[in-house]
Amino acid sequence: VWTAWYGLFVIFIPVYCFLLMPAITALHGDTERFLERVSAQQWAIMISVYCVSHVPALLTLNVPGFEDRNLLLIAFLIIVVQGSDVLQYIFGKLFGKHRFSPNVSPSKTWEGLIGGLVASSLLGALLAFITPFSPLQASAVAFVACTMGFLGGLVASAIKRDQGVKDWGHLIEGHGGMLDRTDSLVFAAPIFFHIVRYFWTV
After folding, report:
1. pLDDT number for residue 1
2. Whole-number pLDDT of residue 6
3. Strands 105-109, 99-101: parallel, antiparallel or unpaired by DSSP?
4. Cβ-contact 169, 39 below 8 angstroms
5. Is the C-alpha dihedral spanning 115, 120, 121, 125 positive or negative?
6. Which of 1, 52, 86, 189 is the most buried (most CB within 10 A)?
7. What pLDDT is stored for residue 18 in this prediction?
8. Rounded-to-integer distance, Cα 24 and Cα 191, Å
9. CA-closest candidate to residue 124, choices 87, 167, 161
10. How far, in Å, CA of 62 to CA of 28, rounded?
11. What's residue 70's pLDDT?
């Protein structure tokens, strides 16, 4: 009986965490830069825990006719979103003339964005055979996920600019930390999860 309500409580759990964290800080009586510190903590949890958790959550979805193959949904998401990042970079290098947001990320261009999104949508259609989607549906889902992925990368760049750092870490030589490689997935995973859950599950 209670499992039917659990999907709703999944939304409530992070809300409770976000309320509890500032309450604990307030109980300690430390008010210096209170809002700034609490906001940073909550944003860090939002992107590094809550948003990313939608990737493994794909394994829990019950998609009719797609039983025991949910791992392929994760593969599809990662391939199209990471592929979009690479394709946007390539199109930007080849054809980029109009910068998208030079103060945030000088390397991002409209040409790179449009070319990357179109190409990744085609990539999604080609990968439809590993998903429960038709080629047209896979293309549309890939387009939405990659658009959100682009916004995730843009937001991550803005945060790094604000903090005065080039990369989130040094785990991968010349490519920064793990979050530098997955920042697009942070925004893409939730929308992809909810699209699949709403339109394809029972």
Report:
1. 43
2. 53
3. antiparallel
4. no
5. positive
6. 189
7. 83
8. 31
9. 87
10. 44
11. 96
Report the distance separating Cα 114 and Cα 187, nearest Å.
18
Which DSSP string corresponds to 58-121?
A: GGG---TT-TT-THHHHHHHHHHHHHHHHHHHHHHHHH--SEEETTTEEEEEHHHHHHHHHHHH
Per-residue pLDDT reduced to its tens digit, 160-175: 888 777 665 555 555 4
Low-confidence ranges of the chain (pLDDT < 50): 1, 175
pTM for the whole structure: 0.85
Taking only Cα atoms into account, the Rg of the chain, rounded to an integer number of angstroms, comes to 19
In Å, how far from its chain's centre is CA 165? 21
Rounded distance, CA 113 to CA 100, Å?
8
CB-count burial class (<10 Å; 0-12, 13-18, 19+) for 87: buried
CA dihedral defined by 7, 148, 141, 84, rounded to 10 degrees? -140
Q: What number of CA atoms fall less than 13 Å from residue 186's CA on the CB side?
A: 21
Residue entry with tokens 């992925």: 149
